[in-house]
Amino acid sequence: MHPLTLDDFRSLLSDVEAPCLSLYQPTHRHHPENQQDPIRFRNLVKELEASLRRRYPTREVKPLLEPFLDLADNGLFWKHTLDGLAVFASPGRFRVFTLQRPVNAIAVVADSFHTKPLVRILQSADRFQILGLNRQTVRLYEGNRDALDEIDADDGVPRSLTEALGEELTEPYRGVTPTGVPSIPSVHHGHGSRKDEIDIDTERFFRAVDRAVLERHSKPTGLPLILASLPEYHGHFRALSKNPMLVPEAIPYDPASIDTEKLRAEAWKVIEPSYARRLAELVEKFGAARARGQGSADIAEIARAAVAGRVGHLLVEADRHDPGHIDPTTGVIEPADLEHPEVDDLLDDLAELVLRMGGEVVVVPRERMPVETGAAATYRF
Which of 223, 242, 275 is the last residue of a domain? Predict the structure, then answer.
C-alpha cells in the first residue's frame, strides 16, 4: 500500500475543474468476497453516468468515464484491494486510493470532490505507523485499530543496511550470507575491532533510516510512529532519532517473528490510551469553549465562522451525511438532495472550509460526539 497523505487530500481541493466525479465503495481483501467488487463498482459508475447526463445532457461524458471502465476491467487491481476504495475524476485528472477502512458506497457528481470519507481517514485519531527494525533490515507499516498493512518499498526509505550504506559499508559487512548475516573474516587487521565496525555501520544505518522515515512518512502524514524491534535496539535507536513522531512506548518484537494481526494488536495497545485521551481532551475543550461563547454546534453558525477563518478545531461525526452545499465565500447553506449533481455533503463542505483556512478537523465516532448536530466547533478568536 501507499500511505494517504494530507498532500493527496489537498490536491483534491485545489485547481479543480467541474464536473468532479467521486466514487466510494467498500471492498474486500480476499477471495471469494472480492469477486463481487468489480460488479458493484460498475453499478456505481452507471450512477455517475446517469447523474452526469442529467446535469450535462449535451456534454461529452465518455472521456470522464473511460478511466473508470478501464479500472473495472483491471483484474490484477481487484485482486489486491484493501477495505475500501476512493476514485476521483475531473477533466484531465483521475486518482485512485485503496483504503484501510470500509466506506459507504456513494457516487456523486458535483462542482467539487466529495472528500469527507477521506477526511475521516486522514483525521481519525487512531491511525499510526510502525517502524520494524533490526541491524540488517527495515519494515514499515501503516494501520489503525482494525487493519495493518505493509508500506510498499518504493517510498524512498532503505529497506536494508546494504541499500542504505552501499559502498560505505565497513569490511565486516562486505560479504553477506544468504541469511543476511555478515560473513566476518576470521582475521581482521586495523585499529578497531570487528564489533566496533559493525556498531559503526549499525549506527549509520539507523540514522539513515530515521532521516528517510521522517522526511518520507512522518512529516507528510503526521502520524505517531511506533518502534518495533528487539529490546536491545530500543535505546540505541532512540538516542539518535530526530523524529518527533516517535512515541515513547515500543513493541518488543522483531516484526519478522510475529504475524501481522499480532503486530496490529500490539500497536493498538500502545496507541489506544493516547487515542482515548486525545478525543476526551478535544470534547472537553469544546465544552469549555462553548460555555464561554467561543464554540458552537450550530452548522449555519460554524459555516460562517469557517469562511472567516475562525474555526480552530472541528469535530465531525463519522458516517453522517447531511445533503446540501455551503457557499465558500459567504458561508450560506443551501439545503438540497445529495443525489442532485450539483450537491455535496454539508459536513464535507464544512470540513474542507476549515482545512483550507488552517484549522484542524477530527472525525469522531458517533458515540463520542458531544452534540447531536454532527459538528462541534471551537473558535480561535
Answer: 275
Range of the domain at 268: 128-275
Rounded CA gap, 375 and 360, in Å?
13
Distance CA 134, CA 155 (A): 19
* Cβ neighbours of 359 (radius 10 Å): 21
Strands 93-99 and 106-110: unpaired
- Amino acid (one-letter) located at 323: P
Q: What are 163-201's pLDDT values in tens digits?
A: 988 866 765 555 544 344 444 443 344 445 566 777 888
What's the CATH code of the domain at 253?
Answer: 3.30.420
Q: How far is residue 91's CA from residue 141's CA, in Å, rounded to a whole number?
A: 34
Q: How far apart are the C-alpha atoms of 346 and 327, rounded to whole Å? A: 10
| Structure confidence by residue, pLDDT tens digits, 290-329 | 999 999 999 999 999 999 999 999 999 987 888 888 888 8
Cβ burial 126-158 (10 Å sphere, 16+ → b, else e): bbbbbbbbbbbbbbbbbbbbebbbbbeeeeebb
Residue 52 three-state SS: helix
Q: Provide the edge-to-edge strand list for the sheet that holds 295-296.
A: 295-296, 375-379, 311-317, 360-364
Question: Within 13 Å, how many C-alpha atoms sit on residue 246's CB side?
Answer: 21
Q: Which residues face 90 on adjacent strands?
A: 93
Smallest Cα–Cα separation from 221: which of 80, 104, 124? 124
Q: How many CA atoms lie within 13 A of 72 on its CB side?
A: 17
AA letter at 3? P
